[in-house]
């Protein structure tokens, strides 16, 4: 039984949960309460020593091992269960390319922007928000163009590249202010397709932790 440490507001945790569902693997959540996370528990020395030196969720417990980094965890699971990793060496390379893009340019800016707007202790700085929006619009534009002529990010089947990139896009739009359907129609159609995967559920139904109203 896999154990997945995280919480419902964490899109990075949600990516791994979606993959476990799609693989139909039994898993159980280990709840890191959002209030504790916001208070900095995952950055404490004790937590880093016991759980993850990087001070982050998600963590996937597999026997005695604690795996971190959603991208690396998804590659591990896709390899182990021989699914969602790409159909050929070329596709697997392409999957990695999009995973790195997601972690550096897509999820990173969007998750930060959403966190500041929905959960930040102080109102977002407009200059920082404007800069992040320009980075997000660029990254979203790249994916929108890529998806205009194809159903999934790599090849003809869904892969972990899709599950990684879409992890933050199923949260309520008021948390980020981004209207995917209105601004990015090819991405919206792709999200509908990914939603058809086995065991798909929205983040606040799949992971522990109450939904809270956006603060700003
Ligand atoms: N690239 C990492 C990012 C993980 C990450 O940023 N997780 C957030 C929660 S969604 C976190 O734990 N942040 C704590 C921090 O940055 O101090 C992954 O994909 O797992």
Tell me what you see in this structure.
The protein has helices spanning 11-22, 34-38, 45-50, 70-81, 89-119, 126-147, 160-165, 180-183, 185-194, 203-206, and strands spanning 2-6, 27-31, 59-62, 65-68. By secondary structure, the chain is of the alpha+beta class. The protein starts with a strand and ends in a 10-residue tail after the last helix. Glutathione is lined by residues 10, 12, 42-43, 55-58, 69-71, 103.
How is the secondary structure organized here?
Blueprint lengths: L1 E5 L4 H12 L4 E5 L2 H5 L6 H6 L8 E4 L2 E4 L1 H12 L7 H31 L6 H22 L12 H6 L14 H4 L1 H10 L8 H4 L10
Parallel strand pairs: 1-2
Antiparallel strand pairs: 1-3, 3-4
Helix pairs in contact: 1-4, 5-6, 6-9
The chain binds glutathione.
The site of glutathione has 12 residues, from helix 4.
Helix tally equals: 10
Spans of at least 5 consecutive residues whose pLDDT stays below 50 are none
How are the strands of the biggest sheet laid out side by side? 2-1-3-4
- Oligomeric state of the chains present here: single chain
Largest sheet: 4 strands, mixed
Which ligands, by name, code or SMILES, are bound?
A: glutathione
* First-to-last CA distance: 39 Å
Provide the helix percentage. Answer: 40-55%
What coarse outline follows from CA principal-axis ratios? globular
Q: How many strand units? A: 4
Give, in order, the helices and strands.
EHEHHEEHHHHHHH
Q: What is the gyration radius calculated from CA atoms?
A: 17 Å
The proportion of strand residues reads: 5-15%
The structure class reads alpha+beta
Provide mean pLDDT, rounded. 98
């Amino acid at each position: 039984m896999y154990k997945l440490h995280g919480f419902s507001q964490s899109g990075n945790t949600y990516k791994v949960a979606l993959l476990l569902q799609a693989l139909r693997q039994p898993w159980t959540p280990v709840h890191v309460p959002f209030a504790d996370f916001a208070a900095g528990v995952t950055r404490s020395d004790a937590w880093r020593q016991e759980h993850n030196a990087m001070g982050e969720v998600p963590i996937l417990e597999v026997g005695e091992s604690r795996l971190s980094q959603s991208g690396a965890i998804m590659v591990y699971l896709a390899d182990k269960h021989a699914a969602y990793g790409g159909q050929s060496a070329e596709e697997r390379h392409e999957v990695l390319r999009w995973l790195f893009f997601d972690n550096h340019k897509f999820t990173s800016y969007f998750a930060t922007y959403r966190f500041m707007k929905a959960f930040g202790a102080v109102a977002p700085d407009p200059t920082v928000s404007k800069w992040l929006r320009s980075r997000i619009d660029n990254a979203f534009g790249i994916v929108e163009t890529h998806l205009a002529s194809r159903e999934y990010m790599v090849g003809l089947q869904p892969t972990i590249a899709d599950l990684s990139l879409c992890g933050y896009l199923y949260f309520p739009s008021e948390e980020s202010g981004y209207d995917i359907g209105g601004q990015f129609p090819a991405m919206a159609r792709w999200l509908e397709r990914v939603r058809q995967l086995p065991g798909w559920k929205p983040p606040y139904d799949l992971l522990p932790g109450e939904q809270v109203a956006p603060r700003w």
